[in-house]
Design goal:
α8 crosses α12. The chain is of the alpha/beta class. It is globular and about 60 Å long. It has a 7-stranded parallel beta sheet with strand order 5-4-3-6-11-12-13, sandwiched between helices. It has a two-stranded antiparallel sheet with strand order 1-2. The chain has a single domain, classed as NAD(P)-binding Rossmann-like Domain (Rossmann fold).
């Protein structure tokens, strides 16, 4: 079949296997040109490894650190002559290229929130690796079923305390539109923390510790975002912000638990990039479009792979603040960058969207998430789907 992009709001419901594979090759090529990372982890578990920062982490671990990796994700495989999800194709390609270079590369497709998948990962670590020295936690999911209570929680993207009104870009129509969002209820705040907070990260560490599969000096890192004031009502001061506060408390809890292994738990505050998760957050697509134009003009723009190479090559110890958070967002949050964002924000409209922002670049990055618009890929080729 000929596979075309079918975009529905902030998601593309199709994915191109050849485009996804080429994306992986390009990320691998970037890492190789940067050089091998010395004194780096060699046995890495990535929880949430098929797209965005988790995928880039696995590429850097495998090809920058020369590490054996296990990736956990929940993706749709090819079935009934329908294409799989982009994450499914990403993981397939990464496993293929890693194994070609002689490294162990195993993917587990299932619900990372479940104890069943945790148990499967532990069995694999015991059989193939013995112990691991690094755990990356990069899950982004709209829902989570608590393995103890069996209750399913759904996260929401809402402000807290007061309603939010502001502008964003409709990516389908390329129109600047006003949005209005009611404040979250206490139940919605709790549910978002259950899904996007650190409870599951801590449960992973507890079970890995209990199984004695963590090496001396083990490091674990989860990813977060703070962003500028323009995004705070819907992000840092909203339900996601509460979940990220919970994540930071979990990092402190995990740090205490890893003391006996001389281990370390960290939060990396990363730069705004185009991911499937960020595309769903109101305001963020418009902010990203403006930000990308400014950062590209200043030649300091980074995507996921550049950020993750910087994180691993700094040995998880770069640009830390007084709370111990790693700040890979330091270029995004530079005063000169944010002052230009603030100057453009009130002026931007549908009529000047392409003049004042890099919406075209943003949308190209969005399509690339699903394997479309990648140079060198024949999109007229008949793709065989199992």
């Amino acid at each position: 079949m000929i596979i075309r992009p079918k975009v529905r709001g902030f998601i593309c419901i199709t994915a191109h296997p050849d485009g996804c594979k080429k994306n992986i090759l390009e990320q691998i090529s970037y890492v190789k040109t940067q050089g091998e990372i010395i004194n780096s982890p060699k046995k890495v578990l990535i929880i949430g490894s098929s797209t965005g920062y988790g995928l880039a982490s696995r590429v850097v671990a495998s090809f920058g650190c020369k590490a054996d990796t296990i990736g956990i994700y929940f993706e749709r495989p090819e079935v009934d002559n329908k294409p799989g999800s982009a994450g499914f194709y990403n993981a397939q390609a990464l496993d293929e290229f890693s194994r070609e270079e002689g490294r162990l590369s195993e993917s587990i497709n299932g619900d990372a929130f479940s104890d069943e998948i945790k148990g499967e990962a532990i069995r694999y670590i015991r059989e193939k690796l013995g112990q691991i020295d690094c755990i990356i936690y990069s899950l982004a999911s709209p829902r989570r079923t608590d393995p103890i209570s069996g209750k399913t929680y759904k996260s929401v993207l809402k402000p807290i305390g007061v309603s939010f009104s502001g502008k964003t870009v409709n990516t389908d129509t390329e129109q600047i539109v006003e949005i209005f969002i009611d404040p979250a209820t206490e139940e919605e705040i709790e549910a978002t923390c259950k899904v996007m907070g650190g409870e599951d990260w801590e449960r992973w560490i507890d079970q890995l510790l209990g199984a004695n599969v963590l090496a001396e000096g083990v490091q674990t890192c989860a990813y977060s975002y703070i962003g500028p004031e323009v995004t705070w009502p819907i992000y840092a001061h909203g339900t996601i912000g509460k979940a990220k506060d919970h994540l930071e408390q979990s990092a402190k809890n995990i740090q205490n638990k890893l003391k006996k292994l001389q281990g370390k738990a960290m939060i990396s505050v990363n730069k705004a990039v185009v991911t499937q998760a960020s595309s769903a957050i109101p305001v963020v697509p418009l902010y990203n479009s403006i930000l990308f134009k400014i950062m590209k003009q200043k030649k300091i723009h980074e995507g996921c792979i550049e950020q993750m190479y910087r994180l691993f090559s700094s040995h998880f110890d770069a640009n830390c603040d007084e709370q111990g958070r790693i700040h890979l967002d330091n270029l995004e949050m530079r005063d000169d960058v944010q002052q230009e964002v603030k100057a453009i924000w009130p002026k931007i409209s549908t009529e000047n969207l392409h003049e004042l922002s890099d919406f075209q670049g943003y949308y190209q990055d969005f399509l690339r998430l699903f394997g479309f618009g990648v140079a060198g890929v024949n999109y007229e080729k008949d793709i065989k789907i199992s």
